[in-house]
Amino acid sequence: MEQSHAEVQLTEEDLTLFYEVSNSIHVIRDLDEMLQNILLRIETVFRVEGASLALHDPERGEFYFIRTVEEEKDGDHNRKKKMRFPDHLGVAGWVLRERKPAIIPDVGKDDRFFKGIDIQQDFETRSMICLPLLTRKGLIGILYALNKLDGEFTERDAKLLENLSGTIAIAIENAQLYGDLKQYASSLEQENLRLKSEVQSRFNLQGVVGSSPAMRKLFGLLEKVIETDTTVLVQGDTGTGKELIAKVVHYNGPRKDKPFVAENCGALTESLLESELFGHVKGAFTGAVSDKKGLLEAADGGTVFLDEIGEMSPAMQVKLLRVLQEGQFRPVGGSQSKKVDIRLVAATNRDLEEEVRKGNFREDLFYRVYVFPITIPPLCHRREDILPLVEHFRQKLSRRFKGQPPRFTPRALDLLSRYDWPGNVRELENEVERAMTLAITEKEIRDEHLSPKLKAPSDRPVSINGMSGATLQQVTERIEQRMIREALKETQGNKSGAARSLGLTRQGLLNKIARYNIQV
Fold this sequence. Notes:
The protein is of the alpha/beta class. It has helices at residues 12-27, 31-46, 69-74, 90-98, 116-121, 155-200, 213-225, 242-251, 270-278, 295-298, 314-326, 352-358, 363-369, 386-397, 410-418, 424-438, 472-490, 495-502, 506-515, and strands spanning 48-57, 62-67, 84-86, 102-104, 128-135, 138-148, 232-235, 260-264, 303-307, 328-329, 338-339, 343-348, 372-375, 407-408, 444-445. The chain is built from 19 helices and 15 strands. A hairpin with a 2-residue loop joins strand 5 (128-135) and strand 6.
């Protein structure tokens, strides 16, 4: 049976086998598919009942099968998950220690053989060759050829399999590296998309449209808090732009180079919100097939924006309080806490003080969140910002149009400025988008392109007392002067606001002010 290695001659079948295994390295990138092809070829060429392969897990001190004999026979892919055994047992343990092949003609006469593996995979081993899979990093696994069908294993079989094992080890290592690279590339791609999205969404104070007194007051508050790590509570009606303000705080503050993540606390159930914020460990609940990093961990060093924080359940309020007090959280199903460093920006359209009185919101969490409150005024309280916002949205949406996007006529702008906008900035943006879509083939956006709700008439009563005997032109001029002065008084000298209330363009109002020599 014994021959010197020099006497081993390669047959045409041997060369074919080497070619096919080598080709697997370059052609097949999927690890399972590659191993299936290799092991099937080994069974055919070496005339064995089966071939299998186990990889080494040095951290757990175990071998685990990634291809078993029974799996090749019946396709039981679930079986391999249970096929693990300590790395000091059996022939595999001996090969791990000695770093050389083992040829066993009769396993019943070899003390190294571990019967437990046969019991696990419901297979009777009679003879085997067991070889180490070695790379520059060391032993990565074990290759088995089991139950020679014709005669006994020869030195030639051992030598050929030994040569093949090196090629197979490289193939496995390459496939693993390829899988790691694909995962890393996918992760980089997702991170790149996230960063691009964040960069495109970065805002500065000048990027928030508004010049009304209420917005100037808000800007003053933002300038004071931006450079700190103070928790901010943004209050305001739905659609006022609370997340926009949160982004202003983040992207102009000391954490601007770190992640910004946002979550709506009212959009998810308690269990889903907990998993989203804190992450979970594998097996924590049905469907938790792997560990998942939560938003808090993903935002470490950056800012977390929690919208509708008043919708949080009492249990979630307790867990959030721990994060704010101790800088720690525990993933769902986890046994160990993790540290995290975040800045919190919260938002609500509820009166949190009232919610505390009702017992719906924890008082201790309220004082953690209500550190620096900022209130965004509704759009109906800052009408002078409506037309600048309309132009801002028109420019923002202009990329959808070829050439110059359509412009709003003065009449359309007047209707937009007079409406109360209960849905605030979000409703206004939707209206601008709708109107531009309807007028996509035209140069102007007219009143017929606007929603019917904007077209309700608005009448301003005008008194002509004390004007008897005056001509129609004189009455008209006096009424114009009085209305202009009243409008300027109401808007505290803001010409743009006065023009909108009068249904004029700003330039039209300036012309009349000059004509009547009105002192502003």
